[in-house]
Amino acid sequence: MAKVCDVCGKGKIFGNSVSFSNKKNRRSWAPNIRRVKAIVNGTRKRINVCTRCLRSGRIERAL
Known about the structure:
Layout: E1 13-18, E2 24-29, E3 33-40, E4 43-50, H1 51-56
Antiparallel strand pairs: 1-2, 3-4
């Protein structure tokens, strides 16, 4: 499953993990993605949606 939200496009981001001794190691952050049934253009579809979009009501759930 792709770690990208189909609604807002949020995906994996990269940065540094910084230790107490100020050493930098590369790391990544992945969004919290859920595969849900939603109404898209009047039809029921399974899409990958981040929990931020689910919580804010950007999609209409198909139950």
